[in-house]
Amino acid sequence: MTFPQDRIIPTDLSNEMSHSYLEYAMSVIVGRALPDARDGLKPVHRRILYAMYELGLTPDRPFRKCARVVGEVLGKYHPHGDTAVYDALVRMAQDFSMRNPLIEGHGNFGSVDNDPPAAMRYTECRLQTLSTNALLRDIEAETVDFIDNFDGSQQEPVVLPARVPQLLLNGSSGIAVGMATNIPPHNLGELIDGTIALIHNPEMAESELHKLIPGPDFPTGGQILGRSGIRDAYTSGRGSITMRGVAQIETLEQRGRPDRDCIIVTELPYQTNKAALIERIADLVNEKRIEGISDIRDESDRDGMRIVIELKRDAYPRVVLNNLYKQTPIQSNFGANMLALVNGEPQLLTLKQFLTVFLEFRVETITRRTQYELRKAQERDHLLQGLLIALDNLDAVIQLIRGAADATTARDGLIEQFGLSVVQADAILQMQLRRLTALEAEKIHAEHQELEAKIADLQDILARRERIEAIIEEELTQIKTIHATPRRTEIIHDEGEIVDTDLIANEQAIILLTEQGYIKRMPVSTFGAQSRATRGKAAAKIKEDDVVEHFLSCCDHDHVLFFSDRGVVYTLPAYQIPAASRTARGVPIVQMLPIPKDEKITSIVAVSEFREDVYFIMLTRKGYIKKTALSAFSNIRTNGLIAIVLGEGDQLRWVKVAQEEDSIIIGTRLGMAIHFHADHQQIRPLGRSTRGVKAMKLKKGDELISMDILSSQVIAGISTVHEGEEEEDLLENEEELTVEETSGGPWILTITNGGYGKRVPVKQFRLQNRAGLGVRVIKFKSPSDRLASLLVVNEEDELMIVSNRGIIIRQAVDAISTQSRMATGVRVQRLDEDDAIAAVALVPPAAEEEAEETGEV
């Protein structure tokens, strides 16, 4: 077959390929792969939602077969395969794929194990309330443009009139030609807060916006490791966000078999296949690339996810968990690429740019909706004005109509005689006779006045942008009230990442550590002050065989140092310790610190800075005491640092912070106490790798239970015990207190296991040499009672007292009476028969109050 010469067009092949490929690429970019920055939807998703809206599949209507929806979309708007449409519909209904699903599914829509959904002929769907409230409302009010569909038989919207930043809410992913997008989902409430803040301050800095929108919020929960990847994505449009599943180390109790440690995984990173993950772990165990795992079980059910990874007896749980993070998808990266279409062109956007584009789109849609409502109101008012003219000239109008030969003549007569428009004349001719009554006439007058007020209001909205912005804010607030949910994904600190502590509030906090190694952080404000001898509140969900062992008050910016019984110190910033509610159990400390199984934390200290002239005072179980400068602990390695050298069978038990001018007071279980200077004469400074010197002699059957520090101002007027006077001071004679001693403070607070306590004036504890026997500090109420705590307190201090069963009370010091050393004290906390006081700590002054006192800002 030959073609005429005039039909053959010579073309350069490279130019034709370039031109044709560019057209194809732009078609894919705009028509398939990339979402629009305004409503956050790709064409297929937009067409599905609009088709369902046209079918009337609103949340208050019955479900319809998905096959019906897919057929509607294919036949009217989307000339592609039915698989592509159904897959897109299914994803919009999956609560593990979308942070806020847009479609409500009925039937099998797949699972997190990557199980396929049922065929479209079996499943049913309808729109979610969020879709109708936030995406499709006002679509009939000319808020957006419509274009012809693929064959020109129907009209479809170019974009939906979204009321929320949907692109950031549910995220998006797509691969186009030469470019791709991958936007993570976010929390609706946080997005709305950020958008409203941007309305009030369009010049808001990126850092301020990040405080309101701290990071992505994935539908499957999990954790985000570090903030640097989020910051990169929000400020440059690209960033690698490290996601991590939620895993806890627990002890599995087995009947007839020894207890074993296990790792419980309850949440997975976004888009992680659970079944493939379990298979991957099993392969790594079989290949001996991960050691220490004896069994893997999937115990997930309708109540939630639960993957149990049993460990061998000799396995270190923390090491196994770190290997799982390193070698399996329990920890993975989300490569954020914030690419979207703006005015039909692909652009890489920052967080602020996303919200700015959305706000400009909302201004446009509200402007168009207001113009539509204004036009409709003006048209209706125009008709009413004609009816009012007819009512004012009723007899003449009736006579004209009766005398007219036909409707056309009557209409022309009305136009000519009364100056009406064609629309008004037609409305008069169509008016029913019942509307000529006085009551109906009054209704027309009232409606006319209402329309005049409405028209003035709509014109005011169009004339003032601040009115439009107020409407945007009001609509956003309404959606937040109805649809916002709490954040699911926790953002945690990444080791080695530099953190801007200015972005973290320096609030007062309480840190609890139980005997079985569960740690938690709570705001001090959780516990209001209570009167003496009350039962208090439960501070933690404690297991029957667990007790609260360590208790610390600090501020969130402090460094928390954990000293173990083997003389090793570990450290964490206070804000990194997971915050938990009052009734939560906390997290295992082995998830936070690499503590070996045979090692136990015995003391917790909070430090704001590591100074050269301030010292750690360390006291062991056998009574050895040592003083080492804080500066020696400024660089503690991840796996800990040696703090003290211990003798055989000895343990490090207490650590306090002191200066050289201060003094040390030590208490024992049988109610003895010794008080001596902390200067270099009594205790000279030693390095970390030393043992220390003897602190106190102990009676038979006695043991050390507490140590505290007295400042130099307090001990200035206290007398010193001379040689030969020590034994005399042990006599159990009741001492009378002077008025000066009972007021002002400070005092030595003593509290027993049975819940009795008192304040003893400091002056009753004379200074003596180290390694003495000390003096008696309390007379016990019962023979079985023992001393639980000995603290230095002031009149303005508040106490947090915790029992073995996790019951906490917060109490002012001045609620406890002042008595002599030989008194029994008063009841401080009412305890159950099987409970006892475990620990006592002081509430520190607020960081803000300290700043005011020092004049620092």
UniProtKB/TrEMBL annotation:
It catalyses: ATP-dependent breakage, passage and rejoining of double-stranded DNA. SMART domains: TOP4c. It is found in: Cytoplasm. The keyword Mitochondrion does not apply. GO terms for cellular component: chromosome; cytoplasm; DNA topoisomerase type II (double strand cut, ATP-hydrolyzing) complex. Keywords: ATP-binding, Coiled coil, Cytoplasm, DNA-binding, Isomerase, Nucleotide-binding, Topoisomerase. NCBIfam families: gyrA, PRK05560.1, PRK05561.1. This is DNA gyrase subunit A.
